[in-house]
Amino acid sequence: MSGLRVIVGCKRVIDYAVKIRVKPDKTGVITDGVKHSMNPFDEIAVEEAVRMKEKKLASEVIAVSCGPIQCQETLRTAMAMGADKSIHVEVDAATYENLQPLHVAKILSKVAQEEKADIVFTGKQAIDDDCNQTGQMVAALLDWPQATFASKIEKANGELTVTREIDGGLETIKVQVPAVLTADLRLNEPRYATLPNIMKAKKKPMAKKKPADYGVDVGPRQSILKVEDPPVRQAGSKLDSVETLVTKLRDAGLVPS
Amino acid sequence: MSGPLKFRVKHLYKTLLHLGKDYPKGYEFFRSRLHASFLRHKDVEDPAEVEALIAKGEYVVKELEALYMLRKYRTLKKRYYDS
């Protein structure tokens, strides 16, 4: 059963190095004129899929992204890293603000069925909403086994042996393909998309679709009430003697009096 | 300097410029220094010497890629993992 077909979900997020600023009206964060890039966990997923292809485990790697037109840049990066083709599911900017993991999972599962995929691979979570839901929901919708938080993937006898990162250790599980995998941070070190590869990626095919093509209703299921900055850390103070320190600690109930 | 060597130098410069877009101190900071260091060696004609300079440039490319990778990894590790 050589030649697995792998679908990789790639989300376009605000770059990890950018300082996030909340909009003054607290409805979201400022995205205009801010550098965006591929979600780092999705990058790890793309890298692993490409490595599977290089090891001849996978036959084709298809990158999928849902979102506004700029997502095509993200898909180009994925193709520059080695994905064979990509599918851009265009969602306009206004709808995209309310696009939830459930919608993306529905689209991904439909894409997986249409492309006859054997593996759906995503990052474990996106660094913007930190939802950590999409992979799991895809598995539920397709009724496929899931191996989330993968830190090592090996293939043996038509099964995948996946080492997962869990609280306080590692867990090794076996899954049958078709399966849904999500990548953890330590799975691999993603390669850098080099300039010649980005040029070559422009020649690779990119299909443009709409959520309606997959029969997915992208109407909002939730509404955002407000978005706020995390609380600012209180500044410390210098004390002039041990006595004041002890008194302060006692007042705060941190040492027995 | 001509022919394939010239092409390789140009290619190296373009690659470095591309990498510079992600430089933590900004693209302009990187570009001006990159330009200056290429200009410093503009009169080098000896093919062996050019070869050595290209090798040095390719080393810088590798270092930059490693720098970006580590920077991303460390940021994520700090953000999402305790240990």
UniProtKB/TrEMBL annotation, chain A:
GO terms for cellular component: mitochondrial matrix. One of its GO terms (molecular function) is electron transfer activity. Gene3D superfamilies: HUPs (3.40.50.620). CDD domains: ETF_beta. Keywords: Electron transport, Mitochondrion, Transport. GO terms for biological process: amino acid catabolic process; fatty acid beta-oxidation using acyl-CoA dehydrogenase. The keyword Electron transport applies. It is found in: Mitochondrion matrix. InterPro entries: ET-Flavoprotein_bsu_CS (IPR000049), ETF_a/b_N (IPR014730), ETF_b (IPR012255), ETF_beta_N (IPR033948), Rossmann-like_a/b/a_fold (IPR014729). SMART domains: ETF. The keyword Electron transport applies. Its main location: mitochondrion. Residues 26-218 form the Electron transfer flavoprotein alpha/beta-subunit N-terminal domain. Pfam families: ETF. Belongs to the ETF beta-subunit/FixA family. Heterodimeric electron transfer flavoprotein that accepts electrons from several mitochondrial dehydrogenases, including acyl-CoA dehydrogenases, glutaryl-CoA and sarcosine dehydrogenase. It transfers the electrons to the main mitochondrial respiratory chain via ETF-ubiquinone oxidoreductase. Required for normal mitochondrial fatty acid oxidation and normal amino acid metabolism. ETFB binds an AMP molecule that probably has a purely structural role. The electron transfer flavoprotein serves as a specific electron acceptor for several dehydrogenases, including five acyl-CoA dehydrogenases, glutaryl-CoA and sarcosine dehydrogenase. It transfers the electrons to the main mitochondrial respiratory chain via ETF-ubiquinone oxidoreductase (ETF dehydrogenase). Heterodimer of an alpha and a beta subunit. Heterodimer composed of ETFA and ETFB. Identified in a complex that contains ETFA, ETFB and ETFRF1. Interacts with ACADM. This is Electron transfer flavoprotein subunit beta.
Automatic annotation (TrEMBL), chain B:
One of its GO terms (cellular component) is mitochondrion. GO terms for biological process: negative regulation of oxidative phosphorylation; respiratory electron transport chain. Pfam families: Complex1_LYR_2 (PF13233). InterPro entries: Complex1_LYR_ETFRF1_LYRM5, ETFRF1. Belongs to the complex I LYR family. This is Electron transfer flavoprotein regulatory factor 1. It comes from Elysia crispata.
